[in-house]
Amino acid sequence: MSWLQRDKKGLKTQPRLARKEIPDGLWMKCPSCGEILFRQELEKSSWVCSRCQNHFRVAADIYLGFMLDEGSFRETHMGLTSLDPLEFKVRDEAYVEKLKEAQAKSGLDDAVITGVGEVGGHAVTVAVMDFRFMGGSMGSVVGEKIARSIRDSIESGRPLIIVSQSGGARMQESILSLMQMAKTAALLGRLREKHIPYISILTHPTTGGVTASFAMLGDLILAEPKALIGFAGPRVIQQTINAELPEGFQTSEFLEEHGQVDRVVGRHELRRVLAQSLRFFSQERRVVARPETQPAQRQPHADEELPRLLKRASGYPFVAGDDSA
Fold first, then answer.
1. 194 and 319 in contact (C-beta within 8 Å)?
2. Phi, psi at residue 303, to the nearest 5°?
């Protein structure tokens, strides 16, 4: 046997160890800065990039977890689905088939989840839009579920919170989707007549008919950092007016600077700011309910900016109601 011959057989034919497969979705790339992020750490940080603080777009049920006290949410107005009275088609693809596809992918009946819950112990009515369902577009069902949630607040006295995340009105429903703008705005007018607080939260993106209706009608308007907020897109506006737009145009920071948004609030502090705001509204209602008595001295708010955020509501004549609301 040659000294070059191997003493142990089978070394050449032994199969190579299979490469370990990395599960899909374990790592995610930030669309803003390109940082590669571990999914579990991203979930723990409320889906906020640790490098650039970009707020990832999330599903409605996840967003409810950011806002509400644990275990307090109860869904309402389930089972509503859109019809197709216009028999709308695009390239032989029927709207009804598009709806079924969106329902299968998202697990939702339509682009909004409504219900009741608590924030810092304060009972609230909530509606959270979901971009996964046809870009969060507002059709008849979205408008109807939000309208019913407004009625719930009117009947119960609970403050209303709506989280907007939408590309605008749903073109497949044409004028029927545009009618939802008037319906929701009219009901919010009734809510205001009852002096029940409405807090609007704008996330990325909030555009089109949603911006032109209930999204911008809040007594307090909060927005997530760097969210796109507007009616038409910046390119359409630039082509229409034939002029350069300011830097940061239609971002939440730009709107805050120009007085259209009360405050830009990150997810880490969202629940705290909501709880403080609801406590402020609750105190105002109790004081107005007993005008014949001397109002008790209030402790200063931990957040020094809160009076500024609520400056429009500081003289708002809230009426008596259930303190739990």
1. yes
2. -90, 110
pTM here? 0.81
Query: What whole-number distance in Å separates Cα of residue 262 and Cα of residue 15?
Result: 65
- Quickly state the pLDDT bin for 325 (edges 50, 70, 90): very low
Secondary structure class of 49 (helix, strand, coil)? coil
Q: Which two tokens stand for residue 283?
A: 């105190």
- Sign for the CA dihedral angle at 141, 146, 150, 152 comes to positive
**Euclidean distance between CA atoms 319 and 196, whole angstroms:** 8
| Inter-residue contact 56 to 62 (CB < 8 Å) | no
pLDDT in tens, 263-319: 999 999 999 999 999 999 987 655 555 555 444 454 444 455 554 555 444 443 333
Q: Which is more confidently placed, 137 or 313?
A: 137
Options 3.90.226.10, 3.30.70.3270, 2.30.40.10, 2.60.120.10; CATH of 58-290: 3.90.226.10
